[in-house]
Write a structure and sequence with these properties.
Blueprint (H helix, E strand, L loop, with lengths): L1 H14 L8 H11 L3 H11 L7 H13 L4 H12 L4 H8 L3 H22 L11 H9 L5 H5 L3 H4 L6 H14 L8 H23 L1
Length: about 210
């Protein structure tokens, strides 16, 4: 019952906002480079906060969070409840107040959408991928760290040539489930990134509606 109430309140709140675009990382990266205060802020967090470290696994979860916001709201809720928080389909049916068939449909379509987005964007699993933020940020925050060595410590990156992209999505989700978003080594840095992206996308939506 509590989850149902919380879900309804969240849906009402989020329905007032537009979905993020699939290229959210590109848009927000461009805004960061055009904002002279952005990088001094993130470097201050990096240098002074005990949770200000850049770790690739944490950025992978950050990327998943941003990309999931491009899904229709019901799909976003269902994939997070089922895949990340391990709710059963019957429980999700009650929480989102729909049928079991619709929950399974939302799960199927959301997974397919996420697989396609990551396949086309993520340079960690596709050499032609357009997003290289993991390597770029690693170079900024860990300049002495060998990116290729660090990348190959991550299970899904090691299996990037695997044609089973569904399995790669599962490995990405596994990383999310292993990280405490509030107490991880880079939580302060990732929160700053997320707040920046949220501000950029909300301002972009407002301008488009004017």
């Amino acid at each position: 019952m509590i989850f149902t109430i919380a879900s309804n309140i969240t849906k009402d709140n989020l329905r007032a906002k537009k979905r993020w675009t699939e290229n959210v990382t590109d848009i927000c990266k461009a805004k960061a480079f055009s904002n002279p205060s952005y990088f001094p802020e993130v470097m201050a967090i990096h240098q002074t906060s005990p949770q200000g470290q850049f770790e690739m696994k944490e950025h992978i979860t950050f990327c998943f969070t941003c990309i999931s916001k491009s899904l229709p709201l019901e799909q976003q809720i269902c994939i997070l409840l089922k895949e990340v928080y391990d709710f059963k389909v019957a429980e999700i049916t009650e929480i989102v107040n729909t049928t079991e068939a619709m929950v399974k449909y939302y799960l199927h379509t959301s997974r397919a959408k996420m697989v396609n987005i990551f396949e086309g964007r993520c340079a960690l699993i596709n050499k032609e991928g357009v997003c290289h933020q993991c390597s770029e940020l690693n170079g900024i925050f860990n300049p002495k760290q060998d990116f290729e060595i660090e990348k190959n410590k991550i299970e899904f990156a090691k299996k990037a040539d695997n044609p089973n992209r569904e399995h790669l999505l599962d490995l990405r989700i596994k990383i999310m489930k292993e990280i405490d978003p509030f107490n991880s080594n880079g939580s302060a840095l990732q929160l700053h990134h997320l707040e920046h992206n949220r501000d950029v996308m909300e301002n972009s939506t407002e301008k488009n509606e004017e």
